[in-house]
Amino acid sequence: MPTHTVTRDDASAPFYDATARGELLLRRCADCPAWAAPRTLTCPSCGGDRLNWQVASGSAALVSWTVVHGRPAADGGEVPQAIAALVESAEGPWLHGRLVGAEPASLAAGLPLSLAFERPGDGEAVPVFRPVD
After folding, report:
1. Residue 1 has pLDDT above 60, yes or no
2. Distance between CA 1 and CA 8 in Å, rounded?
3. Distance between CA 123 and CA 26 in Å, rounded?
4. pTM reported for the whole predicted model
5. Which of 3, 4, 19 lies closest to 126 in space, CA to CA?
């Protein structure tokens, strides 16, 4: 199922520079050991605002998901679908993303996931997750 194009701004540039290299960045507090999601502005543990970018392991576990159905094709072909997921990274922060390479009937909370990237031709590389083999 096609997705919309993601474009960067000044705040997201480090994140998308990393996705282009095949890395997922999370935020890490400079004042305590807490990790935070990429869009976080203050530490969820101590409230500090000195958050640095740090490379995440790419390991995660499935928390929840939903199947999103696209519009039926004009020719009556198969209706495209995508799986929107909430995952818990190995570092702790929860992230929203697409789940690829999985059948909805095979999903279960806690399913181990690994990081992958989708690289649309006209936008930024975006992180997606897939079940660990």
Report:
1. no
2. 22
3. 20
4. 0.88
5. 19
